[in-house]
Amino acid sequence: TNFNDIFNGIFISEQTGYQKPMREFFDYIFNEIGNINREETIIVGDSLTSDVMGGLNANIQTCWFNYRGKENNSNIQPHYEISNLSE
Length: 87
Fold this sequence. Notes:
This protein has 87 residues and is an alpha/beta fold. 33% of the residues lie in helices and 14% in strands. The protein has helices at 3-6, 13-16, 23-33, 48-57; strands spanning 42-45, 61-65, 80-82. Strands 1-2-3 form a three-stranded parallel sheet, covered by helices on one side. The radius of gyration is 13 Å and the shape is globular.
């Protein structure tokens, strides 16, 4: 399976002009993809401070990909947590 068959786009901070966790990064993505409902969107990422915090800033669901089994000692609370992509 090719990434293009699964995702509507791949977005790199340096190419968007915005860095996660800036809300503008996610606004840029939603603008590029078009007609996407934020309530039906989730970000899966391994960084609490950029991926999860960015998703929270953008008002979308978040899933922390905690493949290292780290303890979350921060105030950043993801909606979901997984340790393996098969989850």
